[in-house]
Amino acid sequence: MPLPSTRSLQHIYQVQLGRFFQEGEFATEVKEQLLPLVSASIAVYYRMGNNMLPTPAKSHYTFNLRDLSKVIQGLLQAHESVIVSKDNIAGLFAHEVTRVFHDRLICPEDRVMFYQFLSDNLHDYFKVKWTPEQLMSEQILFGDFFDVGDKASARVYRPISDRKKLRQVLEEYYMRMSFGNTKFGVYIRASQMVFFKDAVEHVTRAARVFRQPGGHMILVGLDGTGKSTVVQLASHIAGSELFKLSLHRGYGITEFRDDLKQVFKLSGVKGLTIVFLLTDADIVKESFLEDINCILNSGEVPDLFDAEELDAIRMELRQAASQADIPDTKDSVYQFFISRVTRNLHIVLTLSPAGGKFRQRCRMNPAFVNCCTIDWYDEWEEEAMLSVAEILKERVGRVCVDIHNTIGKAALKYWDEMRRHYYATPSSYMEFIRLYSKMLRENKQSFINNKERLENGLSKLSEANDLVGTYQERLKTLGPQIEEKQRDTEVLLEQLQKDQDAVEQVQEIVRQEEEIMKRETEIVHEYAEECERDLATVLPALDKAEEALKSLDKSDVRVVRTYANPPELVKSVLRAVCVLFQKKDDWANAKQMVKEPDFLKNLLTLDKDQLPGRVFHKLKRYSKHPDFNPVTVGQNSGPCESICLWVLALEHYYEVNKMVKPKQKRVEEAKEALKLAEGSLAQKQASLQKIQQHLNMLQDRYTESVNQRESLKQEKITTGLRLKRAAVLIDALANEKVRWQESVKTLELKLQGLVGDTLVAAASVAYIGPYTAKYRKDLLVSWVDMSKSAQIPITDKFDLVKSTVDAHQVLKWQNEGLPHDSHSTENALIVKKAQKFPLFIDPQGQAFNYIKEMEGAGLKIVAASDPNYMRTLESAIRVGEAMLLKEVTESLDPALRPVLLRETFTRGGHTVIKLGDTEIEFNDNFRLYMTTSMSNPHYLPAVYIQVNIINFTVTFEGLQEQLLSAVVRQEKPQLENQRSELLESIAADLQFLRDLEDKSLSLLQKTEGHILDDQDLVDTLQKSKGMAEAMYKRIQKSEDTEKKLSVARQKYLPVATRGATLYFVLADLSGIDVMYQFSLEWFQQDMFISCITNQNLVAMKEMERKSSISPHLTGVIRPDSRQSVTRVSMDNKASIELFGKLKESLPSVNTDDPAELKKHMLDMINRLTSSIYRVVSVALFARHQLTFSFMLCSSIMRANAKYTDIAEVGKIEDVEWQVFLQGNIMAKMMDEKTLEEHDGLTAMERLEAQNGGKSKQKSPPKWISEAMWQQCQHLEATLPEMDKLCRSIMSNSTQWNTFYKLENTYKLMTEPFTNPKGEVTEHGIVFPWEQLNGFHRLLIIKVLRPGQLVESAQKFVEDQMSSNYLSTGSFDLKEIYDESSSKTPLIFILSPGTDPASQLIRFAKEERGSTVHLDMISLGRGQGPKAEELINKAKILKGRWVFLQNCHLASSWMPRLQAIVEKFNASTEEVDKQFRLWLSSNPDPCFPISILQTGMKMTVEPPQGLKANMLRAFGGSGTGVVTEKMYEDAVPGPAWPKLLFGLCLFNSVIHERRKYGRLGWNIVYGFNDSDLEVSMLQLSNLLTEHPNVPWKALTYLTGEVTYGGRVTDEWDRRCLHALLGRFFCPSALSDDYSYSPDGIYRPLKTNCAFPQIVTYLDTLPSYDSPEVFGMTENAERACRILQADDMIETIVSVQPRLSLDIMGSDKSNDQIVLEISENIMKELPESIEAFICDEDANPMIHQNVPQTNTEKYLNAAYESCKPLGSWIYDLKLRVDFFAMWAELIITNTEKLIKQAVSTKGAPEIEGEDLMRNLPRAFWLSGFFFPQGFLTGVLQNHARKVGISVDSLVFNFQVLTSKTDTEDSLGDLKQKLSIKEVAFTGKPHTDDGIIIFGLYLDGARWDPKTECLQDSLPGFRFAHLPEILFQPVQTTTAIESDDEKEEEDEENSHVYECPLYRTSARAGTLSSTGHSTNFVTAVTLPSEQPSRFWVMRGVALLCQLDE
User: Fold this and answer.
1) What angle do CA 465, 471, 476 make, to 5 degrees?
2) Which residues form the Dynein heavy chain AAA lid domain (predicted)?
3) Is residue 1121 one of the residues assigned to a domain?
């Protein structure tokens, strides 16, 4: 829909604004400004939209009509009492456009431009002269809250000019919000908000939006800039309710929708004005923003409420709707509800621009920019930060600001060099200020308190010296008193003894009777229980009988009554009943009794205990009958069965009861006797109690007498002690007085530097945590300098650790497990001093171990991936325990936010915190630690605000110190142990002495009364004196020992340095491949310690390792083990014993002999280096092994440049290393002067060149490109060793041509150059390369012979170290299995096209004879739970293996797998010893690092080289793809062995062809072993089924189906067929056939046995000849260049980046990019003149020319592989080409027009006239879409001759000219002259077009033979002469045999050459079936058959990469 015109906009807004002015009764002067107001608003809108364009950093710079409407809406807030003049309305206009347009701008330049626009508009439309500077410095503010007491309805929107009063008003609002409204005050921090200039403006802006109905905002700024606080205050000012999300774990879209419903109900139903604040941290899921986008757009969320909820809303709103005259219908009320929501709801988003999320969110949710007022929050200016620091002294506040600014600069440098993110936010600055204030207060208070305590102690000691009393007289009088009291006590004691004897006699009698009573009671109870048991045996039977009776009913009884003559048994049963009822037992009575209505009830209620014995005696007559039993009776009558059962049960009950009754009677009698005995016993106990009371009275009298006697004795002792204490104090006070006086002086000195020391320490705690050691050191130095410059007192030699914590505290930390380096000590200091919880970057686990050691067993350790960790957290908070949350990701769980920010509040006198919806009590002892194993996590500013990030990554110096301690502990254990014990002792002694002093001072301070009564004080002073004397001696001894240790330790520093160097190389490997993970624990324990222990031990273990190697799968799978190959197998007791004997028998090393010590250390260094290399190299992919060797060697040499080396390895300086890695970039940064000074010319030659002499044409050899030459100049300018390099290259062509042509370049440079002919060049300078060291030679080779770099790097490593560091070991699965344990995962690291499943299956069969024990499951698609179940079952069964394939496909399940594996190592976990967990994964970041570090890694990849591939295919022991049985199978026929061998070689060739890059395959395909296995099966089947070899079927199935099925590029398919033709052809069956022209690779001899194949393969060369691939040496050179580039890029990827500081530039990245862009715009014309021609007449022009417009290119650059500089030059050429073409058309058109005017009629346009509009030749490379251009040529020809365009094709003819010589076609440096080639000469008059500017890749055009020829050595690319594209009509060919047609095509001497736009060749598949990069196929004549060039990979290119 088109935008409305300016006229329409003016009309719309004039009507709206005019009506408002009319209704508001504004002054006439104001109404007259209606037109200027609208016009000015529209003008600002247009100027902003046209000038402020969006960029990646300014994605929100999009302006639309809604912004214009916001301006008008702001003007509608005017009040007639305020806006009364033109100046008033101009001020309001300026304010509103500023709020809408200015507030979103992000940089000063844009803001200056806006104010210029505003100033211009104010002058143009209002005639007001306000300059941009005036508008910026005196910004206009409007608001309605200036009067605090006004109600919201009475507020007036007015200008605010008094900024000072405005600040006071805002402070009052803030105080009211904080303390008057508990809803807002719950979580607000106690710190006062500072209202600096920006803060005031942001609050005013937010309050303006909240007063507008439906106003929404987006606040954009780094976290910590105060956005949320501003929203809280502004919403309070506007009288709105603030609504925030309450997040909890598991918070998702459902919970968010519930909160949205609540917001809608509050604003729509209750009519409250709601500010809905959504922060970055609240956006747990991006889907939240979709709902927000809907609300901003339409005011509602579709399907938010269900029908029931909508009905409830309608019921609540019915009354309000009625009052608003809304019809009572469902839709009307709902729309009324939505309108209220739209009016009352204000959505506020606070987003951070850090990262790319903000830009992405704006793009995905357009309403964010369209419907919201955007307020951009800058980083705080200095004024703001000084305002915050106004509580400090002015100088201190200034330094605080400077410190914060240095952090921002350091963060940029940190990113540029280390690619590590760091964010310093205003929140960090405020935290710094708070921390400084707190530390200063605490330190000052601590120092003052200590000083006062010492002074008080000195005064107390002085007072005590005067209080030596005289207690001797008192001692004399105490003696007689004590003797008298002793006599009285003895009398009482005698009487007490007598009474005690009498009491004891009575007690004995009572005790005996109690025991008798107890035994008799037990007997009675046992007898009673026996009676109960007897009765219990019969009661169940009786109960059963009664239940049977109850089951009978009247019908059953009625049956019995009906018996006229019942069976005899029935009569017997009823007669027995008569007996029990004591009636006559005849049938008549029985029948009568049955007829009674209560018969059954009478049976149940019969009193069984009252029946006499005669009844049961009589009953025996019936019951003794054998048939009188329920079963027999039941056969006659069912009811009588139950009656019979009841009768027998009663009889049994009677018999048992008859026996029990006598017993019961005896029990009752015994109980009566017990009662009598108990009464007697009670009387005796009462008598005993009276006697005991009398005895107690005597005891009290005796005790009193004894106490009096003891009191006298104690008084005597106390008096004596006082006399002794007096003597002790007199002796001890003198020394203590001196020591304490010195302490007072020390404290006074510390107080002098307190401010500066505390300032730097607080800054360190607040800021330096995330930095590495180097950056920390630089920052500390700069901060100390700042303090000194600001004249802030600070300690002269400031040391962070020494100035902040005591030495004994550091020793205590180190004894708790803290590493001994300064970096770790700083980390511990930060943890102790910081107020926020720490988050450790801990890839090596050092922080994890330290926290575990420090906190002890009470530490709760939980993984962040544990879904239930919040329960543990809540428990720890309540109890006050420590908790460690490990494996934290880059985004923190939002549920942690209240804990991290300590959002506590008081409820009921308790400190409470709210987690989700739960309130729990907060214990102040709670401690939270977090760790992440990621080495370089990217934490956004929101995380920095919440936690204190501390980089605990091990440092080189730290690791060096740890390893040095390990070496000394091994070599000099007594010294190291002595040192360790000494350090612990010193720490303990210092602490003890400190405690004693504290205790002494405390006791002196608290002493009341007589000082000589305080024994603790006296003892403390006495101990202090003794400890002080001992301490001085111990310190002196420790200093002497430390000197000895330092000397001894420094001797072993080279070993520690080598160890640290090696580890950091291993740490860098993870940057190459995420699977290359090696833990520090493994390195220290398994490798370093074992390697320095003893050489013979390692050798012995190596022998054991080699003896276990078997030929299983050797060379296929490369392992690495956490338990390295040097680890002793604990199952082999004999080996352990042997190792022990070896260790005992080894001779000791005389470390006093320097030569012997050096030899010993060299052994350790070499052993360590070789062990690390051997273990690690086999865990790497083959393409990274040389890189690892080179990194190892270069790192050692770089370390040697800094530390002492004894290994005689060379050195590499940092500048040399930077040149090697970044020389190409640094060379481009050289200035023109430097380039001129090193141009290789003498001063005279340079002068002649400037004057146009002959030497002007002098240039480097043609094989040296411009980039190479520039790097040579840089080498010469940078390194003194490269002096005269450029001069030698320019003058001595013989030397450097030799350098270029010879292959072994590195070896060539080791000897002086001599002219091969013995002649010396006249002016040539011989460069002395033999004087260079190895690395300098590499630098030259890298620049001038990059193809030789890989081989030279191998030679370099071999020279510096040895060839052992170039060979790689290999292990088999058998060995891996034997070394592993049930708790160690075995990990296959996969490369493309590999699958270890078949190998593992084969190994499982070999190991166990079958694969029944192997369970395999492929992960992905929800297979995780199944895999877990499989593991849980397998680990407890016997001998099960589990293989989890493709772990990278189950990234979400990987944390669970990590937990499972960690559980294996738990002490409580029982795992079968034969259980194994096998894993396979592609390199993937999701794979758990801990599993990689603890598991055994094996890289699985195809072997490198044809020979290795073939040996793998024909592996011995049946492990290869081809087995002996398969090979010797006679069924397929005699051709089977040869074709099978050829098929395997073909498979190897297509795999290895990938190394040639684009020459090999256009697209890299994942051919794998399954392709070979399927092809072998097809080959076998076809040969079996056909008597003759079916070549056609064989070729089709193999080339089209099996392998060809993977090939998507048609030209790759052609190449595949050409290669296959070498191996599947009749000639391949003859013995003299060769697969390659060089004759190296031949078919097997007839009847060749299987063992002979391996022998034959062993004779093949390890180096693959390019001829077998159909390639040339040029292709091989290109391959080597690719390998070299890959190696360099890999090394660069793990090195610190080349920052702008290193390059000497002070410009930012954005500034550099803008400068480049400006240069580009200067180079390019603004546009191309439009062609004056009809599209129908010339469609080929219109398909391409419009695409070449510069603006189009800037929006979407055309496809190219060129670097930016070359691309710009190419773009300029393209634009020039079309500009000249356009100029040609314009010139010819003007001629035609003039001709028409002169003839006064339409001229006849001849064909020749049309041809004048076309270039002579076309530069196809210049077209954006060359395919379309060629199609246009065909269309023109089709219209000309009147045929269908589909029937046309091109014929091609190469037009070789006289200037096309071999040299000119091969000279790629020659610049293309488009004007001369394209527009000079007459156009081609025949049909067709001439194309120029094409390049041949992989071949050259021979101008003599005029056909394709092989490229010259060293020149891969060549020019192709002009070529004629001539359209011709296709003829209907006679159908011929397909096979013959293909054969003719392959053998024809015409090559169908594909033409590509770029050298990438591959592209996306277009609708035509071809790649988008493919243009057309050009037929070129050739002397060789077509397949020759197909295998060469020859192609035509439109452009080269350079």
Assistant:
1) 165
2) 1536-1675
3) no
Same domain as 1459, residue 1421? yes
- Angstrom distances, CA of residue 974 to CA of 404, 595, 977: 49, 112, 5
- Would you call 1818 helix, strand, or coil by DSSP? strand
Is 211:273 a contact under the CB 8 Å cutoff?
A: no
Least confident of 615-629, 1262-1276, 1410-1424, 1587-1601: 615-629
Q: Whose CA is closest to 220, among 83, 368, 418?
A: 368
The pLDDT score that the predictor gives to residue 472 is 54
Residue 515 has pLDDT above 60, yes or no: yes
Check if the beta carbon of residue 1949 is closer than 8 Å to that of residue 1985: yes
Q: Which domain holds residue 894?
A: 805-953
Q: What DSSP string describes 444-513?
A: HHHHHHHHHHHHHHHHHHHHHTT-----HHHHHHHHHHHHHHHHHHHHHHHHHHHHHHHHHHHHHHHHHH
1651: helix, coil or strand?
helix
DSSP state letters, 770-822: TS-HHHHHHHHHHHHHHHHHTT----TT--HHHHHS-HHHHHHHHHTT--SSH
Q: How many domains does the chain have?
A: 6
Sheet holding 918-921, edge to edge: 904-907, 910-915, 918-921
CATH classification of the domain holding 561? 1.20.920.60
Q: Would you say residue 1816 lies in a domain? A: yes
Predicted pLDDT at 1097: 46
Q: Which two tokens stand for residue 676?
A: 């009598």
Spatial contact of 1623 and 1648, defined as CB atoms under 8 Å apart: no
* Closest CA relative to residue 436, chosen from 407, 478, 404: 404
Residue 870 CA, chain-centre distance (Å), reads 21
As a whole number of angstroms, the distance between CA 1808 and CA 1826 comes to: 25
Q: Mean pLDDT throughout 1478-1491?
A: 90
112-150 pLDDT, tens digit per residue, is: 999 999 999 999 999 888 999 988 888 899 998 888 766
The secondary element (H helix, E strand) that includes residue 1340 is: helix 1334-1344
pLDDT given at position 1060: 92
Same domain, 1355 and 1405: no
Would the pLDDT of 1318 be above 80?
A: no
> Residue 765 above 90 pLDDT?
yes
d(CA 227, CA 631): 94
Pairing of strands 904-907, 910-915: antiparallel
Residue closest to 244 by CA, chosen among 229, 224, 226: 229
Strand pairing of 141-143 and 158-160?
A: antiparallel
1539-1550 tens-digit pLDDT: 999 999 999 999
The amino acid present at 1604, given as its one-letter code, is G
Show the tokens assigned to 1396.
Answer: 């270890």
Banded pLDDT at 1052 (limits 50, 70, 90)? confident
- Contact criterion met (CB below 8 Å) for 467 and 1012: yes
Within a domain: residue 1924?
yes
**Considering only CA atoms, which of 537, 542, 534 is closest in space to residue 645?**
542
Structure tokens at 1914: 């060293």
User: How far is Cα 213 from Cα 2, in angstroms, rounded to an integer?
Assistant: 29
Alpha carbon of 846 to those of 524, 951, 1316, 1698: distances in Å?
73, 11, 61, 30
H or E, element range at 275? strand 274-279
Domain membership flag for residue 1828: yes
Element spanning 21, H or E: helix 6-23
Are residues 1980 and 1848 part of one domain? yes
Give residue-wise pLDDT tens across range 614-653. Answer: 887 887 888 888 888 888 888 888 778 888 888 888 878 7
Phi and psi at 493, nearest 5°, equal: -65, -35
Q: Is the pTM value of this prediction over 0.90?
A: no
Q: Does 1810 have pLDDT greater than 60?
A: no
